[in-house]
Amino acid sequence: ATILVLHGPNLDLLGAREPETYGHATLAEIDAELATIARASGHELASFQSNAEHALIERVHAARGDGTAFILINPAAFTHTSIALRDALAAVALPFIEVHLSNVHAREAFRRHSYFSDLAVGVIAGFGALSYRLALDAAMRRLAS
Ligand code: DQA
Fold first, then answer.
1. Is the distance from the beta carbon of residue 10 to the nearest atom of ligand 1 less than 6 Å?
2. Whose CA is nearest to atom 9 of ligand 1?
3. Which helix (H) or strand (E) holds 6?
4. Does the active-site annotation cover 43?
5. In order of start, what are the domains of the chain with their CATH numbers?
6. Average pLDDT for 33-55
7. pTM of the prediction?
8. Which atom of ligand 1 is least distant from the CA of 107?
């Protein structure tokens, strides 16, 4: 099956961006590792990053007809602001896991609220790049069950 990984704003700067919070891995490294793991289990991985809310929404809409079976999404700051991206995920009704590199519950109060968590299959936060690998593992287990 195809698993879509969506990355929100500023995640294109991973590796250089606040490495004490977000780690040293670049987005390209994270995506490449996820693609390798997915392929080894017979899945395809598609990934997409945008700093623009509308582009992320359009990509979610496209997932409805392109064979995507599961979405992993780190909405980044849109986690805390975007009803529109939430509504897009609800509209396509594809299962998704919410992913965060940092433990959003151990930071500023405004990061504790997510517009996505109640719709998500589950939420993984706080493990750096490993958060994505754990989410991929969980998605593949879901797809196999
Ligand atoms: C983040 C946490 C968000 O609060 C923040 O705005 C991000 C990244 C994370 O992966 O830890 O950009 O989603």
1. yes
2. 100
3. strand 2-7
4. no
5. 2-117+131-144 (3.40.50.9100)
6. 98
7. 0.97
8. 4
